[in-house]
Amino acid sequence: MDLFLPCLLFVMLHWSNAQPSPGYYPSYRFRPLRGFYRGFNNLWGPEHQSVSGDQSSVTIWLDRNSGSGFKSIRPFRNGYFGASIKLQPGYTAGVITAFYLSNNQAHPGFHDEVDIEFLGTTPGKPYTLQTNVYVRGSGDGNIIGREMKFHLWFDPTAGFHNYGILWNPNEIIFFVDDVPIRQYPRKSAGTFPQRPMWLYGSIWDASSWATEDGKYRADYRYQPFVARFTRFIVRGCAPSAPPRCRPAPSSSYGAGLSRRQFAAMGWAQRHFMVYNYCRDPKRDHSLTPECRS
């Protein structure tokens, strides 16, 4: 009995922290791209980007000379956008690996953006996954971020995991292995991105802020810093698509999240969320009115 009770407690704790089933799996509902170049082009750092022979995957890396990025061939007005990503272990402080939507090239200094960003770290500490939403961001330094940060319930360097963004006229949902970790609803026209955006992936040096607010910077003794992407899913409506092109469903019901998805999101936020901009007392919440409603 003395041995049984500690074992039972361990099993119960492990079970309580096990990833719940969301009941809906968008990363498997939609067919991946048949080739990288069917959906993307190199944006910068071509010598730091390698596409596999069958175009099923792309590897990008950062060294002291350059990082790299790619961009979707066309913009979208809504959709589900996903990829399986594997990150580099070890010392990666100051390095950002990103998968995101943006129209910054079409609207410089006044753009919209929806981010999944992996913030590099030091050995023994977990990666931080940062989600963010920018709406008509300004170029005068008054850029209003809406960050929510998470630690993951697995090691993102040990294998590929699915990460996704679903964007429709009413909400943005961030997914990790099909578990919704964040739902950002449209509460007003001024707090929600509505203009077409392109899909991007990149790796770059953000030493000034990425790791513990810039405490640890990129150390190029550990270069190259590598990120691998595969199984791209790009299921969205182009700006010129007819009205019959409908947004990708966020649940088996179509719009919104199901009860099981809400429960899974609650689990992720209770156990793994480490920052919520709406709960930050240092933030000026007059600039983020959605936090008050």
UniProtKB/TrEMBL annotation:
Keywords: Apoplast, Cell wall, Cell wall biogenesis/degradation, Disulfide bond, Glycosidase, Hydrolase, Secreted, Signal, Transferase. Its EC number is 2.4.1.207. One of its GO terms (cellular component) is apoplast. Contains at least one intrachain disulfide bond essential for its enzymatic activity. Residues 1-18 form the signal peptide. GO terms for biological process: cell wall biogenesis; cell wall organization; xyloglucan metabolic process. Its main location: secreted. One of its GO terms (molecular function) is hydrolase activity, hydrolyzing O-glycosyl compounds. It comes from the Eukaryota. The active site is at 113 (nucleophile), 117 (proton donor). InterPro entries: Beta-glucanase-like, Beta-glucanase/XTH, ConA-like_dom_sf, XET_C, XTH. It is found in: Secreted, Cell wall; Secreted, Extracellular space, Apoplast. Residues 13-229 form the GH16 domain. PANTHER family: XYLOGLUCAN ENDOTRANSGLUCOSYLASE/HYDROLASE PROTEIN 8-RELATED. Catalyzes xyloglucan endohydrolysis (XEH) and/or endotransglycosylation (XET). Cleaves and religates xyloglucan polymers, an essential constituent of the primary cell wall, and thereby participates in cell wall construction of growing tissues. Belongs to the glycosyl hydrolase 16 family. This is Xyloglucan endotransglucosylase/hydrolase. It comes from Musa balbisiana.
